[in-house]
Amino acid sequence: MNPIESDLAALRWPAPDADLHAVLSRIGNFGSFLLVLIDGKVATAPDNKARVLAAVFTSDAARGAYLANVQSAKNATLNETVLLLSNGRDLFTRLATMPLDGIVFNCLGPDRPIAFVPALSQQGLQRLDLEAPGSIH
Predict the structure, then answer these.
(1) Structure-derived torsion over alpha carbons of residues 1, 83, 13, 15, reported in degrees to the nearest 10
(2) Which terminus of the chain is more solvent-facing, meaning fewer CB atoms within 10 Å of its CB: N or C?
(3) Looking at the whole model, is its pTM more than 0.70?
């Protein structure tokens, strides 16, 4: 598990002694989240409950695993665009404007998927806003 995945896991399942301020700061400043658009729509994670879960990736390997699975399932080449978001604040801000049931980081591996429901995502965004440099507490 790479450091950003460890931070996402710490936010999702916080330990009693977790330094969430440091975790949120690292997530907010991480500059390599990948959000994939397929045919102009945000890629979604597979879900057996028909929920709309944004698929977000922390590495090219995770994005590649997802695209290989989707291409295999559709037996076709995808019209794919990758957006590299500048940081976690931008990611949570963008996703907060979309009609989603949740977010799944690295939904098809190679590391453990980490899912967030909208309320947890919104809470993360609020915490990131509160802890942004120069913000008033």
Answers:
(1) 70
(2) C
(3) yes
